[in-house]
Design goal:
This protein is mainly beta. Helix content is 9%, strand content 62%. It is built from 3 helices and 14 strands. It has helices at residues 2-12, 97-100, 103-107; strands at residues 32-39, 44-58, 61-72, 80-89, 92-96, 113-117, 119-123, 131-132, 135-143, 146-168, 171-185, 189-199, 203-211, 216-226. Strands 1, 2, 3, 4, 5, 6, 7, 8, 9, 10, 11, 12, 13 and 14 form a 14-stranded antiparallel beta sheet that branches.
């Protein structure tokens, strides 16, 4: 579930648009977005806080340095913090899924690992019925050329399903609802479906994840917004 929560953040992280039209991602340096995470029964399980640390030009792209701090309600440990970069180029937002993975997950595979991934992308505008590109992430550990441990996450069937008004602790937003499938393969395969609600200029507002039987297993809502 930890990797799935991270993945939900991958799919919807916002960014800043300076010289390009990045559509739904309009944030400045210092912007903060806070989220509350719940289980399928509505019990608070954790929180995450995204801070936009810096923004700079790299050729014709805008690069965004982001810090993500996550905490768990069941643990008294310090927040888990990772930093990564995202970019907006040619009017689209792109993120390499590998850059979003928890370093502790990668470390558990040992030192001789192989990572492959594709970018998760969003266009500058959305419309009901629109399909978005698939994305994937794979990590494996090898010994003498033989794979001994591997994990793959596939995000497929991304569709803009509806336009809806959504109310969360941070306010009420007009959103596009995007649905997609998530398949995680390690020792066995776990299939899930998910939905994310995106708002123009505000990024992610809400997410929901369901198991293969359609039962709600987790959700996340925007609880803090500082632009």
């Amino acid at each position: 579930m930890k990797n799935l929560t991270i993945l939900m953040l991958i799919v919807v992280l916002p960014l800043i648009a300076i010289s390009q039209d990045c559509g739904y991602y309009n944030y400045k340096k210092g912007a903060i977005m806070g989220y509350q995470q719940f289980d399928g029964k509505g019990k608070l399980t954790g929180s995450s806080r995204l801070t936009f640390l810096d923004i700079y030009n790299d050729g014709d792209a805008l690069v965004y340095k982001v810090r993500n701090e996550t905490t768990s309600e069941s643990s008294k440990q310090q927040p888990n913090t990772i930093e990564y970069e995202m970019r907006c180029q040619n009017g689209e937002f792109h993120i390499d899924m590998a850059s979003m993975m928890d370093p502790n997950t990668a470390a558990s595979f040992g030192s001789d690992i192989k990572v492959t991934s594709t970018n998760l992308s969003y266009p500058s505008s959305l419309a009901v019925g629109q399909t978005l590109p698939d994305a994937s992430y794979s990590i494996s550990s090898e010994t003498q050329g033989v794979t001994v441990l591997s994990m793959t996450i596939d995000v497929t069937n991304r569709v803009v399903a509806a336009e809806e008004s959504v109310t969360v602790p941070a306010g009420t937003f007009n959103c596009y609802k995007i649905t997609y499938n998530v398949d995680t393969k390690m020792l066995f395969k776990i299939s899930a479906t998910a939905a994310v609600w995106m708002t123009k200029g505000g990024g992610m507002v809400k997410t929901e994840t369901y198991d293969k039987k359609g039962k709600l297993t987790s959700s996340m809502v925007l609880s803090e917004l500082k632009q």
